[in-house]
Amino acid sequence: MKCIGLIGGMSWESTIEYYRVINEKVKNRLGGLNSAKCILWSVNFEEIELYQRTNEWDKCGKILNDIAKNLEKMGADFLVLTTNTMHKISEMVLDGVNIPFLHIADMTADEIIKERISTIGLLGTKYTMTEDFYKSKLIEKGISVIVPEENDQNIINEIIYEELCKGIIKDESRNKYIEIINKMLKNGAQGIILGCTEIGLLIKQENIAAKMFDTTLIHAKKAVEYALE
Question: Averaged over 26-48, what is the pLDDT?
Fold first, then answer.
């Protein structure tokens, strides 16, 4: 079994899900008392979010790059960055790192292709929805991407940072997300990516009529598959 290096804490609410899903899937695959070999390094998200907000991504990159290098030294065989948004700076994170990295957008694209879906709706932080670092990975694999209109993007982003990252789950917010998702489906989306690792805490498959791709579950599953190859 390979040792998984997890860069977490962005937010810790979703990192818990990674840890739970990874260990459950190892147990289900191997049985008995088997659990995942992993090293988890969890950041202070207050610091990271400040640098996001002030557009100081280089400072985020330095923090996460130091962590990645330390995880490699500690014996991690590959890296999993437990957040969609911070893949924006994945090149910075991996500078000087010599172990494999499982990119969350690549893993998600592969699952979308398996379902033969060509047009996908993308939910996430404002960075993930508006910038190209994530969408380009999907487009490269022939998947068209639909994002919400600007006002809806603001609603989605605010709920992520002000509620979900703080462990606050509201029916009212779930209903807002469902309304936005239904608009995207009317606009041609054949499925929906929960492109922020916290959204799966709020939205479940039974809440929407189309195929849902929960990036936390996809990423954690792929990490286990890679660890047990």
Answer: 97
